[in-house]
Amino acid sequence: MKMIVRRFLAPLAFFISILLSAQALAFDVGGLSYTIIGATNNVEVMGRQSGNTDLDIVIPDTVVDGTTNYSVTSIVKFAFFDNALTSVTIGNSVTSIGKEAFAFNALTSVIIPDSVISIMLGAFGNNAITTLTIGNSVTTIEDLAFANNALTSVIIPDGVTSIGVEAFNDNELTSAAFKGGFGDFPPNMFDTNPTLATITYCEGTSGWPQ
């Protein structure tokens, strides 16, 4: 009988230790949930804290848990998916915005800070965005990142080297401007923008079809 109890308790103790470890890596602050990224002082935003129904979200540069100050460096996939958000402020330490992180909300204006490097698939798809500022450090805009919105114009910074298919599909674009060269840009990045009449780029930039 004693042997049976020991065999049962050993895996149970292991499971409890794993559970406690996972809990230690996650915490809630200011209405948002965070997870620590590995053995770093960086965290990723998981979404709204349980019970938080705020429609205006502010993602800070840093958060404090206990005595430790963490930099908020990423927003995970689906973090705020279909939360009926009307506005979001993204902190200046965020470098990555995950797949469909803000998709299917009611956002009308978005500023991507200069800290952001990558905007993943469908990150801001299916909102009502009319004004968009893309930060100067962005290099990658994935498929459908800003699809199904109400943009009338967009400026692509010169650091952007990769744009996914239909990244700006189904908007109301009349103009688009590129500050840099023609990178990994698919021909259909502006699909379903029937009033898009003008695409401009800077003199001397490379790779543009004439």
Chain oligomer state:
single chain
Shape: globular
In percent terms, what proportion of residues is strand? 25-35%
- The helix content is 10-25%
From the alpha-carbon coordinates, what is the Rg to the nearest angstrom?
21 Å
- Helix count equals 1
**Order of helices and strands, N to C?**
HEEEEEEEEEEEEEEEE
Q: Provide the low-confidence segments as ranges.
A: 12-23
Average pLDDT rating? 90
Quote the distance from N terminus to C terminus: 83 Å
Structural class: mainly beta
Major sheet description:
9 strands, mixed
Total beta-strand segments: 16
List keywords for this structure.
210 residues; mainly beta; nine-stranded mixed β-sheet; three-stranded parallel β-sheet; globular
Give the structure's gist in a few sentences:
This protein is mostly beta strands and 210 residues long.
What report would you give on this structure?
It is built from 1 helix and 16 strands. It is mostly beta strands and 210 residues long. Strands 1, 2, 3, 5, 6, 8, 10, 12 and 14 form a 9-stranded mixed beta sheet that branches. The chain has a 3-stranded parallel beta sheet with strand order 13-15-16, with no helix packed on it. A two-stranded parallel ribbon has the order 4-7. It is globular, with a radius of gyration of 21 Å. It has one helix spanning 2-24, and strands spanning 26-29, 32-36, 42-48, 56-59, 62-65, 68-75, 87-90, 96-97, 109-111, 118-119, 131-133, 140-141, 153-156, 162-163, 175-178, 198-201. Mean pLDDT is 90; it is low at 12-23. 11% of the residues lie in helices and 30% in strands. Strand 1 and strand 2 (32-36) form a beta hairpin. The longest helix is centred in the N-terminal third of the chain and has 23 residues, at 2-24.
